[in-house]
Specification:
Elements: E1 4-12, E2 18-27, E3 32-36, H1 43-51, E4 58-63, E5 66-67, E6 78-81, H2 93-103, H3 108-121, H4 137-149, E7 155-159, H5 167-184, E8 187-192, H6 195-201, E9 204-209, E10 212-217, H7 219-224, H8 229-234, E11 241-244, E12 262-267, E13 273-275, E14 283-294, E15 298-305, E16 313-314, E17 320-321, E18 328-334, E19 344-349, E20 355-358, E21 364-365
Helix pairs in contact: 2-3, 2-4, 3-4
């Protein structure tokens, strides 16, 4: 096991394209770090730099107290699991898992011990003599993980290992990977574009965009306090509702002004409720229902803003409330509660559930 530390790591390709723009973070011994972001944000490039498959333009990568910038991949004491499994089709499961150990000159007795232990952990014992073509996608992915486990590396690296699996199998394998990492207590760095996968797996979540880090932290902290509007809209399903603030800068609960540098307001779909009246000092939006999604225990209501949302509003006591303009708003309600399409509804949220950001979306502002 080992810490992994990145210090001002950059990657500039020929022609001047900067794929990685000076990234710093540390993964502690035995922690599970997930790099998440949209396609093209640089997360796989960064993982390949840790693995030694991409050269580093500048900065340092430290694995277990050793700077590995110029060390060959085979000598970094890491093991990598790829998206496409990368199994040898003519070899049995046993030989696929043993191949790397044989190349290192390990004795057959030790190889047998390691392969059988990995097979036991991954429930592959009955499949050791099968060829990859005789396995399901999930079984092939377990073989790929077994090949990494037998190495007993300091660090596991995963490059979108579940993206080729169907939705049900992805959920099952996600749970298995997390259980496996905890059992082995090995440091892991995992790349995915799936924010739900990232939230459920990570001890440390690194949200990337455009070759740089938008936010690093505990997944729930990031969800509840996103640092930018990119993080707010990328983390969470459905995403956070974002809308420009009404220029009136109304008071909340009759005390305290909205900060003058705030330009955008955010509210999670689950923090909006259907209501008849007007909350004192909270958010109130009048919407026309345009679409309904029933997903079992909950329902997503998609509403379009109605004109009354463009002015400062007050409750029955004359207390100003926060007004906002919005185009589409998503509201999450219980599965048995669903207004009709075309219905006029009012949704409200308390002040302590609102999020404020700068007008450019690059900065979170305390409310």
């Amino acid at each position: 096991m080992a810490n992994v530390t990145l210090r001002n790591v950059r990657k500039v390709y020929q022609g001047g394209f900067e794929a990685i723009k000076g990234i710093d973070f540390e993964v502690g011994d035995g922690q599970f770090c997930v790099l998440v972001g949209p396609s093209g944000c640089g997360k796989s490039t960064l993982l390949r730099m840790v693995a030694g498959l991409e050269t580093i333009t500048s900065g340092e990568i430290d694995i277990g107290g050793r700077i590995v910038n110029t060390i060959e991949p085979a000598d970094r004491d890491i093991a990598m699991v790829f998206q496409n499994y990368a199994l040898y089709p003519h070899m049995s499961v046993y030989n696929n898992m043993a191949y790397g150990l044989r190349n290192r000159g390990m004795s057959e007795a030790e190889i047998k011990t390691r392969v059988e232990e990995a097979a036991r952990i991954l429930e592959l014992g009955a499949m050791l003599q099968r060829k990859p073509r005789q396995l399901s996608g999930g079984q092939r992915q377990r073989v790929a993980m077994g090949r990494a486990i037998v190495r007993q590396p300091k660090v596991f690296l995963f490059d979108e290992p579940l993206s080729n699996l169907d939705a049900k199998l992805r959920i099952a394998m996600r749970v298995e990977i997390r259980k496996l990492q905890r059992r082995l207590n090995t440091t892991a760095i995992y790349v995915t574009h799936d924010q739900l996968e990232a939230m459920t797996l990570a001890d440390i979540l690194v949200v990337m965009n455009g070759g740089q880090v938008e936010q690093i932290g505990n997944p729930l902290d990031i969800y509840h306090k996103p640092a930018t509007t990119f993080v707010a809209s990328f983390i969470g399903a459905p995403p956070m509702n974002l809308m420009p603030l009404d220029g009136a800068r109304s008071q909340l609960d009759g005390a305290g002004q909205i900060p003058g540098d705030a330009g955008l307001l955010g509210i999670r779909p689950e923090d909006l409720e259907l209501a008849e009246g007007q909350p004192a000092g909270g958010l109130a939006l009048d919407l026309t229902v345009e679409a309904i999604e029933h997903v079992g225990a909950e329902t997503f209501v998609y509403g379009a803003r109605r004109p009354s949302d463009t002015a400062v509003q007050t409750d029955a006591n004359g207390t100003p409330t926060l007004a906002a303009t919005a185009n589409d708003v998503i509201v999450r309600v219980p599965g048995t509660t669903a207004p009709a399409i075309g219905a006029a509804i009012r949704v409200v949220a308390p002040r302590n559930r609102l999020h404020l950001f700068s007008a450019d979306g690059r900065r979170r502002i305390a409310l």
